[in-house]
From TrEMBL, chain A:
Protein name in the entry: Electron transfer flavoprotein subunit beta
Gene source species: Oryzias melastigma
Protein family: Belongs to the ETF beta-subunit/FixA family.
Keywords: Electron transport, Mitochondrion, Transport
One Pfam family cited in the UniProt record for this chain: ETF
From TrEMBL, chain B:
Descriptive protein name: LYR motif containing 5a
Domain Complex 1 LYR protein: 22-74
Residue spans crossing the bilayer: none
Top-level taxon: Eukaryota
Similarity-based family: Belongs to the complex I LYR family.
One cellular component term from this protein's GO annotations in UniProt: mitochondrion
Entry-linked PANTHER family: ELECTRON TRANSFER FLAVOPROTEIN REGULATORY FACTOR 1, GROWTH HORMONE-INDUCIBLE SOLUBLE PROTEIN-RELATED
Length: 254, 99
């Protein structure tokens, strides 16, 4: 086994930013808006770096697909402890329509090329909330998957994964190579401090084009419209319980 | 703003050499962390500058080391604050509250 782990990291609008829809409802405003690494991707990077610190794997490679700015996200992963990065350059219209299907094709091609033992991703991105990339990547590679991982342990050439599922936890054992997706409680990601960012500048980021990997980026989806959620209506105060019943009857709720 | 900064820089240069580097490192690290401060990076920078300016005449190396240690502690507190904020936001958005 190569002992190499591929970690996918996505550049998304920062979680604390108030999202605004474009006036033409074609999408969300991204120009001049603060972006950062997807929180679940941070957890994925942390897990990979932890495995390396425990000497269970040898190398952590951070991958991101997108325009020039995606390199900043890769730099953050390098500052957290990844060894090198791969920037898959996707720009313009291709980037607008880039989704889980295209990214999983790219990741599958890279996993084969880099002879990865594990591919670790965040369970979902906070911008599109697809929760598909990990699953699709595993399917394309025909590898087992341990999704919604809240605990990961390597045992020889098998991985024990505790998964967060509705109603509790499920423990599975899968063989490597495998794809894992990180859930919130997997670990506490370390902060990429300024000294670490400075040190990470020496680490290499390779530039790759999707065509080099033989990947077709055509999307099967078309976004028709983006709308804000309905505005919350102002509440009403009533004096007595009888008033409440009258109001509920008027509203047709009772 | 230029004048006050150079006054601080001169006092930093007056310090024992290794400590000067420590203070400068601390200031840069805090400034970098402050970019994510919930009340805004500008608010943080104001408070940071005035905190350092308040101590600009401290000469005793032991006292300086203690202040730098306090600054390092603030760095840890900020990292914890940022993590908790993010964790709570993700938990609220993605997980059913266990009532």
């Amino acid at each position: 086994m190569s002992g190499r782990v591929l970690v996918g990291v996505k550049r998304v609008i920062d979680y604390a930013v108030k999202i605004r829809v474009k006036p033409d409802n074609s999408g969300v405003v991204t120009d001049g808006v603060k972006h950062s690494m997807n929180p679940f991707c941070e957890i994925a990077v942390e897990e990979a770096v932890k495995l390396k610190e425990k000497k269970l794997i040898k190398e952590v490679v951070a991958v991101s697909c997108g325009p020039q700015q995606s390199q900043e996200t890769i730099r953050t992963a390098l500052a957290m402890g990844a060894d090198r990065g791969i920037h898959v350059e996707v720009t313009g219209k291709d980037y607008d329509t880039l989704g889980p299907l295209q990214v999983s094709k790219i990741l599958a091609a890279l996993a084969k090329k880099e002879e990865a033992q594990l591919v670790i991703l965040g369970k979902q991105a906070i911008d599109d909330d697809c929760n598909q990339t990990g699953q699709m990547t595993a399917a394309l590679l025909d590898w087992p998957q341990g999704t919604f991982a809240s605990e990961v342990s390597l045992e020889n050439d098998k991985v024990k994964v505790v998964r967060e599922i509705d109603g509790g936890l499920e423990t599975i054992k899968i063989s490597t190579p495998a794809v894992l997706t990180a859930d919130l409680r997997l670990n506490t990601p370390r902060y990429a401090t300024l000294p670490n960012i400075m040190k990470a500048k020496k680490k290499k980021i390779a530039n790759v084009k999707p065509a080099d990997l033989g990947v077709d980026l055509t999307s099967r989806l078309e976004v028709l419209r983006v709308d804000e959620p309905p505005q919350r209506q102002a509440g009403m105060k009533v004096e007595t319980v009888d008033d409440l019943v009258v109001k509920l009857k008027d509203a047709g709720k009772v | 703003m230029q004048i006050t900064f150079s006054r601080w820089w001169t006092s930093v240069c007056d310090m024992a050499n290794p400590l000067r580097g420590e203070v400068f490192r601390l200031y840069k690290n805090l400034l970098y962390l402050g970019r994510e401060y919930p009340k805004g990076a500008a608010y943080f920078r104001e408070r940071l500058k005035s905190a350092f300016m308040k101590n600009k005449d401290v000469k005793d190396p032991e006292k300086i080391k203690a202040l730098v240690a306090k600054g390092d502690f603030v760095i840890k507190e900020l990292q914890a604050l940022y993590y908790l904020r993010k964790y709570r936001a993700m938990k609220k958005r993605y997980y059913e509250s266990e009532e």
